[in-house]
């Protein structure tokens, strides 16, 4: 029923005939390939036991139908019609440069939006987008890899993505449990044994969002797709969905041309990380021997880092926790910005007397660390540490960050490290794209990083990769020991000495009531912009406040020894307010000035701000 390569690294299941029929035209042949793909029965998970049970919604018809590697399967029968989904509902699934939706039913007030049929249409839409981007590929079958994090809806959506890609005549390669950075890397790796490089890649993830959510990130060798690309894919998907809903092939046997491969690509990706650390240490086989490093994967996809990266490098990893994938996230939210998550990894470091702690988000594109004393390296402190490392390698380079970084970080980067701090907008894709733009106009930038833990380096193809960020820290540990500078994480702690940190740092979220009559039928975005303009005008009349001379997002103001930034959320009807100050009294003064400026906007919920001022 299947053949296995001699290396044991690739298992290929020919569920149906060849991967690609010549001259298939996507625009005319979106046929329904409801071939049943019982991944649970035929394709065991790669990279760990997943936290779900039960059978797939599409069961394999009968094993006796296998003939010479070909299966002819009936179109999926359905006793109910596929519900209508308007194009506007597809477009609502866009979340910046990602797609996000509700994939698990049962949470009150959160109707299912990312169904299997919607997912199939999105996958086929990506195929259409990809074909439009590729030139002269009419005789070449496109190859797309699929990976997922530990979410309970992952298997169901992986099957649906596979069907959608198959409908478009694409060769399907499943990686199983994987990280988002690995999915991008699969478009760059050149290794025929692992069917690389792929033409495109799809990661099924919703980062740190609740268990009932899921979504998609898309990659080509040029990097992650942008907002216009996601809109294009969703518009294509809406049209394809209509064809699915109107299909009358129920009960007809279709010879679907689908060649599903399961590839352990995470081993390839991890081996590259290992090689990077060894190289930095002078090609020593076990440069981390004797170092005690604990990892908290938060029951996401980051558990591989222990067995496939740290242990081959010689590190002691006892005390590592929550490595098993569990899409219900029973221990804490896998989020390096979450206080509970950071307390968990800090406790693990102290309890085990470890040299370093590492924590990842669900899909490993974000990370943070903790030193041996329990000091956290996240948000501004992680940016400071990474800036110190990068500026040692590239003196004078520009560090691009998001808009909510501190004034103390600017002073640290520019005065102590001799670099340039370019504070830009929120959104990891915005930060990365700005760094790429700066390089294109002659300003050298080697690091683009957000306070959220998204960090991308020029040397790593501008991919925001939480594991690679941690490798840069490991490189520093290993090279410091080789140079005789001692062991432990003190070398990292010393690198952020002199970073000024505020005594008070808060974020308050001011929501806009979209149904309030004060909006007068306008959009929340227009209303939010009016709030910001009013604040800007008020600041200009106050001698105690100074508006930032260069600012790319919202209104940023200094005063009372601190600063505040009021900006409009990228996607939601919310105005986040960040305040940092040397004391609670000074923070309250800043908050009071903001409150006085915006209190006349009755559709703006200022209760959080009022409470902070009154505390």
Give a quick precis of the structure.
With 615 residues, the chain is an alpha+beta fold.
Task: Give a description of the structure.
This protein is an alpha+beta fold and 615 residues long. 33% of the residues lie in helices and 18% in strands. The chain is built from 17 helices and 26 strands. Strands 1, 2, 4, 5, 6, 7, 8, 9, 10 and 12 form a ten-stranded mixed beta sheet that branches. Helix 7 packs across helix 8 and helix 15 packs across helix 16. It is globular. It starts with a strand and ends with a helix. The N terminus is likely disordered. Pfam families: PGM_PMM_I, PGM_PMM_II, PGM_PMM_III. Its EC number is 5.4.2.2. It is an enzyme of class 5 (isomerase). Belongs to the phosphohexose mutase family. This is phosphoglucomutase (alpha-D-glucose-1,6-bisphosphate-dependent).
Task: Pick out its properties.
alpha+beta, six-stranded antiparallel sheet, single chain, 17 helices, 615 residues, 33% helix, ten-stranded mixed sheet, 26 strands
> What is the subunit organization of this protein?
single chain
**Average pLDDT reading:** 86
Percentage of residues in strands: 15-25%
Give me the Rg, rounded. 25 Å
Spans with pLDDT under 50 lasting ≥5 residues?
1-80, 248-257
How many β strands by DSSP?
A: 26
Distance between the termini: 69 Å
Principal-axes shape call: globular
Number of helices: 17
Residue share in helix? 25-40%
The profile of the biggest β sheet is: 10 strands, mixed
Given the helix and strand composition, which structural class is it? alpha+beta
Subunit structure: Monomer.
Cofactor: Mg(2+)
Enzyme class: isomerase
Organism: Solanum tuberosum
């Amino acid at each position: 029923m299947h053949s296995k390569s001699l290396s044991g690294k690739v298992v290929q299941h020919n569920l149906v005939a060849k991967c690609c029929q010549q001259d298939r035209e996507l625009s005319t042949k979106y046929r329904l390939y409801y071939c049943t793909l019982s991944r649970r029965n035929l394709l065991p998970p790669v990279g760990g036991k997943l936290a779900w049970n039960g059978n797939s919604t599409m069961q394999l018809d009968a094993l006796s139908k296998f003939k010479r590697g070909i299966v002819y399967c009936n179109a999926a029968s359905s006793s109910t019609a596929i519900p209508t989904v308007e194009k506007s509902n597809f477009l609502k699934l866009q979340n910046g440069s990602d797609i996000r939706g509700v994939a698990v039913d049962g949470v009150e007030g959160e109707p299912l939006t990312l169904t299997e049929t919607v997912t199939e249409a999105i996958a086929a839409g990506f195929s259409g987008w990809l074909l439009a981007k590729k030139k002269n590929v009419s005789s070449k079958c496109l190859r797309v890899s699929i990976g997922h994090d530990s979410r309970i809806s992952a298997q169901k959506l992986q099957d649906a993505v596979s069907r959608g890609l198959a409908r478009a005549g694409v060769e399907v390669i499943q990686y199983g449990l994987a990280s988002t950075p690995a999915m991008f890397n699969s478009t760059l790796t050149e290794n025929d044994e692992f069917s690389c490089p792929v033409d495109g890649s799809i990661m099924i993830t919703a980062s740190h969002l609740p268990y009932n959510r899921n979504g998609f990130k898309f990659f080509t060798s040029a990097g992650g797709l942008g907002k216009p690309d996601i809109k294009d894919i969703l518009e294509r998907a809406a049209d394809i969905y209509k064809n699915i809903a109107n299909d009358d092939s129920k009960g007809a046997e279709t010879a679907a041309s689908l060649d599903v491969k399961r590839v352990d690509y995470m081993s390839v990706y991890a081996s590259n990380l290992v090689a990077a650390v060894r190289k930095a240490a002078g090609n020593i086989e076990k440069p981390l021997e004797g170092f005690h490093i604990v990892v908290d994967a938060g029951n996401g996809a980051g558990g591989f880092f222990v067995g496939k990266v740290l242990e081959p490098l010689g590190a002691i990893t006892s005390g590592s926790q929550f490595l098993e994938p569990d899409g219900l996230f029973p221990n804490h939210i896998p989020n390096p910005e979450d206080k509970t998550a950071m307390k968990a990894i800090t406790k693990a470091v102290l309890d085990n007397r470890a040299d370093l702690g590492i924590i990842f988000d669900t899909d490993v594109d974000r990370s943070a660390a903790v030193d041996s004393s329990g000091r956290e390296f996240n948000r501004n402190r992680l940016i400071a540490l990474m800036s110190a490392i990068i500026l040692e390698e590239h003196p004078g380079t520009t560090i691009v960050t998001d808009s909510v970084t501190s004034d103390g970080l600017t002073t640290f980067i520019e005065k102590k490290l001799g670099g340039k701090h370019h504070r830009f907008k929120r959104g990891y894709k915005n930060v990365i794209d700005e760094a790429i733009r700066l390089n294109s106009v002659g300003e050298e930038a080697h690091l683009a990083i957000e306070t959220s833990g998204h960090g991308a380096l020029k040397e790593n193809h501008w991919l925001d990769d939480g594991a690679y960020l941690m490798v840069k820290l490991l490189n520093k540990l290993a090279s410091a020991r080789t140079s005789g500078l001692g062991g432990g994480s003190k070398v990292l702690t010393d690198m952020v000495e002199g970073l000024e940190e505020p005594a008070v740092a808060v974020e308050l979220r001011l929501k806009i009531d979209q149904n309030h009559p004060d909006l007068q039928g306008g959009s929340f975005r227009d209303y939010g912009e009016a709030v910001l303009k009013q604040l800007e005008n008020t600041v200009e009349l106050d001698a105690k406040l100074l508006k930032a001379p260069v600012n790319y997002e919202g209104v940023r103001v200094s005063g009372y020894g601190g600063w505040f930034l009021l900006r409009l959320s990228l996607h939601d009807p919310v105005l986040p307010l960040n305040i940092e100050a040397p004391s609670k009294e000074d923070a309250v003064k800043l908050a009071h000035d903001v409150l006085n400026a915006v209190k006349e906007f009755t559709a703006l919920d200022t209760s959080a701000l009022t409470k902070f001022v009154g505390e």
